[in-house]
Structure formats: C-alpha cells, structure tokens
Design a protein that fits this description.
The chain has 233 residues and is α/β, with parallel strands linked by helices. It has ten helices and eight strands. Bound molecules: cytidine-5'-monophosphate.
C-alpha cells in the first residue's frame, strides 16, 4: 500500500533552501514532510551524548538503530507553514543544538558511514504515508525513494547559500561568521559529494533548479508547476 503513496523528493547541498521550500510545498499539497538531514544530525548528537566515537561505524549505526527521533509542531509553530518543527531526540528537545553548524559537520561525518545510512533507510521510508510525502535531503531521489513521482535537485551559489544560512542562524539567536560559515558549508558539501555511498548528486531524472536569484515563493511555484504536470490525475 505505501508504494502507491506519491513522493516528491527535493535534494541539494546545504543552504540551497531545501527545508523551507519542502515545508511550503508539503503544506500546499497537504502532505507529510521528512527532513532527512535532521535524522542524521540527531544521530550525530545522540552518539555524542553517549560518548560514542563518531568514527566507530558499528557503534554509531547501533545508536542510529535505537535512537528515538520525533518531530513535533508546538503552538508557536502551528499555522506557520515554513516553521521548522521541534526535534525530540531520546526524549530531549534538541531543536536548538541541531541547528548549530557543529551538528551539521557531525552529521556529515557519520553520514559517510555505510552502516549508519543503512540503519536509517527503513525509518525514512516509513514516513511515506497517505496522502503523500515531500522528502528533503541528499539521496532522497537517488537511494531512499528512487521511484518518486517528481524529483527536484536544488542548487544555489556558495555565496548565496552561506548568506542564507548566516541569516537563518542569526534570526534564531545563534552567532555566526559569514566567511567561516561558507568555508564550513563548502567543506561539508565536498565530503557529501565525494563519499562512496549515496553521494550528493542529482538523480538522472531530477529537475534541476538553481534558485540563487529566485525568491522562496518563486521556487515553490516552480516545484508546484512541475508537480501539476507530473501528477497522474
Ligand atoms: O540537510 P542538513 O544540512 O541538515 O544535513 C546534514 C548532513 O546530513 C549533510 O551534510 C549530509 O552529510 C547528511 N545527510 C545525508 N543524507 C541525507 C540528508 C543529510 O547524508 N539524506
């Protein structure tokens, strides 16, 4: 049954706007939303809490398999389609910690470990529930949902992505330096693109969208337009 539920995947590098655009598209369609990056961030954090060595593949994979990760929409997020849900990891509210670039770097390190990725596949596929799913990440269209009805690969220039991430962190009260943020993002993307398993790359049948000079609304409209053309009814 879940195989009949439509999936729309949005992959791309850090700061390409995947999260915001995916949440808005999911809200427009009335679908579920999966932030797969948050799962990798949460596993990195759970492993750090348990003082597991992040290069110990089996130990981190075991952490991934037993982690209890929940997304919750609280009263302050309700009604705001672009708001990020709270992320509860092993019973603790980890929303703030997960937004830090250190959490992104830890996620990228453990995401290169094949056993960790394997431990998260079924969990991610479990988010495919009626009436549909918008899934964002790096390998949603290539590995996790290769049969997705529509696959989008978002990009934006490194300068634009760093500027967006900077603005996002500052607005959440997290201090950040633009130059070091750009260097961190580029290093993370480099690792994500060059890893042996599930590297960051567009699926062969993905629609490419460079949104460097597009507004969020225009990007959402573009994705919705592609979806209208693709939908089977
Ligand atoms: O999207 P976000 O920046 O939260 O992702 C954090 C890290 O998690 C990425 O840099 C990437 O290494 C990893 N990731 C991944 N596959 C996904 C989503 C995220 O490898 N589907």
């Amino acid at each position: 049954m879940p195989k009949t539920v439509p999936v729309l995947t949005i992959d791309g590098p850090s700061g390409s706007g995947k999260g915001t655009i995916s949440r808005l598209v999911a809200a427009r369609l009335g679908w579920h939303y999966l932030d797969s990056g948050a799962l990798y961030r949460a596993v990195g954090l759970a492993a750090a809490w348990e003082q597991v060595d992040l290069s110990d593949e089996a130990a981190v994979a075991a952490c991934a398999a037993r982690a209890d990760i929940r997304f919750e929409t609280g009263p302050s997020e309700a009604g705001d389609a672009a708001a990020e849900p709270r992320v509860i990891v092993n019973g603790k509210d980890a929303t703030h910690q997960l937004r830090m670039e250190t959490a992104g770097a830890a996620a990228s390190a453990i995401a290169a470990l094949p056993a960790v990725r394997a431990a998260l596949v079924d969990l991610q596929r479990g988010y495919r529930r009626a009436p549909g799913l918008v899934a964002d990440g790096r390998d949603m269209g290539t590995v996790v949902f290769p049969q997705a009805t529509l696959k989008v690969f978002l990009t934006a220039s490194a300068a634009e992505r760093a500027a967006r991430r900077h603005k996002q962190l500052i607005s959440k009260g997290i201090s950040a330096n633009l130059d070091s943020l750009r260097a961190d993002l580029e290093m993370r993307d480099e690792r994500d693109r060059n890893r042996a398993v599930a590297p960051l790359k567009p699926a062969e049948d993905a629609m490419l969208l460079d949104n460097s000079s597009l507004s969020v609304e225009a990007s959402v409209e573009q994705v919705m337009g592609w979806w209208q053309q693709r939908r089977p009814f």
